[in-house]
Every structure is written in structure tokens, then in C-alpha cells.
């Protein structure tokens, strides 16, 4: 399909993922909303423009519950469809109204700004240990180490593992299964196996916490479940763990990785921070805008035929939230929207970005992700001020997914 055609042809989402920005620019030139073809030939839509996405994310007639997904309800979605878990997992990301508020309230107190700030000393200590590990890995391999493997992944996985009482021995397996669950080019039998294995492992973790409760969120969720099924069912318990553990580390992992790539490619921006002309928080926010850790997030469903950005989206259509496209929308961010600029002014009538969501489903872990990324970047470049990519940016292999937006590995020279 020719994306530059003025005819509004459906955009076929590439299951292999890759860098989204060139395709996003072509689609945005056509409009803020586009019809798409999802893996397996499933018809859907994507909201790309910043203002249209902000409206859509908070719209009262847009649902998250998959009972509104027409093709799924009609039995036209195969069991091994790679995006099925996003629709069918039982948890706050697939709940609306009172159910959503009930599920969110069970974990929200652990992610308030005050509670998160109390984690700062522990996160700083973990960061220091991981920087030692990164240095050792580089020393063992000629001065080059995979920053994603040795630093950007174990930091958020360590934090979320500590919060939810996940033993260290399970964390690598959880990360591997998470990668498979969010992959969009995975074969049906592999998708089914990955979901089965992930649910089995989380079930085993929950069972262990039930036998030996601790001061962690999994134990608290189990207590809520056991107080009565009206507070939390077993399926919702496991679904909440899927969401919090998968999203709780993958998003921050991509954020840290993308920020390091951005700073290595824009040394002038790094110097602004070093000269106190900008902050590490500015780096985090501009990275979220410029290279969102999640590119297209599944799914929302109009509960009636809905016009967004001048485009009719039929009732029951699975809609992707195009965070990476909205972040570089020239209509919201100006003609230089594709430029990484940590001093970029924010439009008075807009938010800086939508990469952590908007409305009732705004990312619960946003304060934690911001804190982790800020500490990680500050300590990393203080310890290794001359850090640089060990391979050209163009040579970095991308995720095999149009959901997550980052690279598979980040070799750096310390």
C-alpha cells in the first residue's frame, strides 16, 4: 500500500515492528485518525494526532472492556492471535466504570507521589549496584556492554519485583515471557504457549505469597481476594499481576533505553543538563514525547459509531492509541516536532505528551517510571560521562512489535 496516496487506504500494521517514526509521519500527513489492518487481517483503527488522541482517550463513549470488541464477540478472533491478551486479560486495563475504579484502588496507594518518593534511597542503591555490574560486563568484553541487559532492564524489574514480592530467580523468565506476550510477529502456537507459561508462573508466584504472605502488593491483593470475591476475583488477581509486572518494567526499560540513545545522538542536549540549563526531568519528558516507550497500545472500543478527528470509527472497532505518532505531531508540537529538544516549550492549551496515557486510564506507575528514569540517567552519565553507542544508531535491531518501541540491545562503550 502507498501511504502517501491521498486515498484513505487502510494502513497495514507491520507485525515485525521496527522504527515507527517514518510511517507515522506519512500517516499524520493524511490525517489524525486512520483505519488499519491488524495481524490476521483484523480490521481496526489508530488515533495518531495529539489533539484527537487526547479527546479519544478521555471520551465517555469509548470502552476498554472486550465485550465491546465486535470481532472477538462474534468469534472471529483466533485463540493464537498475537494481540488477544491485550483484549482478554482480566484487569484494570480491560475494565470500565466501577470495575475499573475498584481494581485501580487496590494498588493505587502504592504509586502515589509520596509513596514513590519514599522508594528513592532504595532505587539509588540498586542503581549503584547495577552500574557496578555494567562496568564489570564491559571490562569482561573489551570495554563494551549491553546497557539494556545489564542496567536498563534489571532496574525496573528489580523495583517492580520488590514491590510485588517476585523472587529474583523468576525475573529473567518474566522478562522473556513479557517480550513474547507483547510481540506482534509471534506465531499462534508460540503466543498460546507464552501466555500459558506466563499465567502459570504468575499463578505459582501468587500461590507462594499466599503460603508466605509478606509486605508486598501481591500479598495485599491476595488478602483482598480472600476477603470476598466482590473485591477481587482470582482471574483479576492474575490479570493485575500481568499488567503491573509486564507494563511496570517494559515501559521504564524502553524509556531508559530510548533516553540514552537520544542523549548519545544529541550531545548538545546532554551538555545542557551538565551546564544546569535543563534538568534530568526535562530529558525524561522529552524522551517520552520524542520516542515514546509504547508506540501503539491496544485497545479501546467505541460503544457507538464515533467521529474522531473528522473520521468515523464504527462501533466495536479495536482502536490503537498511537502514542509515538502523537508525540511528533506537528499540529501540536510545531514544524520541528521530530527534533529532540529538552528545552522545548509546552503549548499553553496542551500537555507536553500523551505517552503515559490520559483520562481515567492514565498510567498508574507514571511517578515511579519518572523517578526510576531520572535517577538512572543522572547516575549513569555521572559515572560514565564519556559513554557512547558502540554501534551506529542505524545498526541497532528493533523490537519485533508495533506495541513496544525500542531496540533489542544497546551496546555501549563506557
UniProtKB/TrEMBL annotation:
SUPFAM superfamilies: Cytochrome P450
Transmembrane annotation, as ranges: none
Protein family according to the UniProt entry: Belongs to the cytochrome P450 family.
InterPro entries documented for this protein: Cyt_P450, Cyt_P450_B, Cyt_P450_sf
Identification of the protein by name: Cytochrome P450 hydroxylase
PANTHER family the UniProt entry points to: CYTOCHROME P450 YJIB-RELATED (PTHR46696:SF1), P450, PUTATIVE (EUROFUNG)-RELATED (PTHR46696)
Amino acid at each position: 500500500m502507498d501511504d502517501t496516496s491521498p486515498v484513505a487506504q487502510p494502513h497495514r500494521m507491520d507485525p515485525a515492528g521496527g522504527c515507527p517514526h517514518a510511517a507515522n509521519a506519512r500517516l499524520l500527513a493524511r490525517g489524525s485518525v486512520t483505519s488499519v489492518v491488524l495481524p490476521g487481517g483484523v480490521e481496526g483503527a489508530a488515533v495518531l494526532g495529539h489533539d484527537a488522541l487526547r479527546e479519544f482517550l478521555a471520551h465517555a463513549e469509548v470502552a476498554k472492556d472486550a465485550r465491546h470488541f465486535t470481532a472477538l464477540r462474534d468469534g472471529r478472533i483466533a485463540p493464537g492471535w498475537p494481540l488477544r491478551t491485550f483484549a482478554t486479560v482480566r484487569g484494570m486495563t480491560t475494565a470500565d466504570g466501577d470495575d475499573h475504579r475498584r481494581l485501580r484502588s487496590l494498588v493505587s496507594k502504592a504509586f502515589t507521589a509520596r509513596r514513590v518518593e519514599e522508594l528513592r534511597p532504595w532505587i539509588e542503591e540498586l542503581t549503584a549496584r547495577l552500574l557496578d555490574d555494567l562496568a564489570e560486563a564491559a571490562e569482561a568484553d573489551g570495554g563494551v556492554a549491553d546497557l539494556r541487559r545489564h542496567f536498563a532492564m534489571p532496574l525496573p524489574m528489580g523495583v517492580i519485583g520488590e514491590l510485588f514480592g517476585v523472587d529474583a530467580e523468576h525475573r529473567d523468565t518474566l522478562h522473556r515471557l513479557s517480550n513474547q506476550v507483547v510481540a506482534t510477529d509471534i506465531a499462534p502456537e508460540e503466543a498460546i504457549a507464552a501466555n500459558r507459561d506466563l499465567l502459570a508462573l504468575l499463578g505459582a508466584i501468587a500461590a507462594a505469597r499466599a503460603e508466605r504472605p509478606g509486605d508486598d502488593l501481591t500479598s495485599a491483593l491476595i488478602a483482598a481476594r480472600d476477603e470476598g470475591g466482590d473485591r477481587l476475583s482470582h482471574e483479576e488477581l492474575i490479570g493485575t499481576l500481568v499488567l503491573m509486572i509486564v507494563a511496570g518494567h517494559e515501559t521504564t526499560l524502553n524509556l531508559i533505553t530510548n533516553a540514552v540513545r537520544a542523549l548519545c545522538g544529541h550531545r548538545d542536549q546532554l551538555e545542557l543538563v551538565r551546564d544546569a540549563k535543563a534538568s534530568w526531568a526535562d530529558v525524561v519528558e522529552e524522551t517520552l514525547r520524542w520516542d515514546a516507550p509504547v508506540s501503539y497500545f491496544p485497545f479501546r472500543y467505541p460503544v457507538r459509531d464515533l467521529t474522531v478527528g473528522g473520521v468515523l470509527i464504527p462501533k466495536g472497532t479495536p482502536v490503537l492509541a498511537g502514542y509515538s505518532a502523537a508525540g511528533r505531531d506537528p499540529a501540536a508540537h510545531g514544524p520541528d516536532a521530530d527534533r529532540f529538544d529538552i528545552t522545548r516549550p509546552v503549548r499553553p492549551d496542551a500537555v507536553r505528551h500523551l505517552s503515559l496515557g490520559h483520562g481515567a486510564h492514565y498510567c498508574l506507575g507514571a511517578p515511579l517510571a519518572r523517578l526510576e528514569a531520572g535517577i538512572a540517567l543522572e547516575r549513569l552519565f555521572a559515572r560514565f560521562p564519556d559513554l557512547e553507542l558502540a554501534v551506529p544508531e542505524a545498526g541497532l535491531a528493533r523490537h519485533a512489535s508495533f506495541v513496544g518501541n525500542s531496540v533489542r540491545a544497546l551496546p555501549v562503550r563506557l
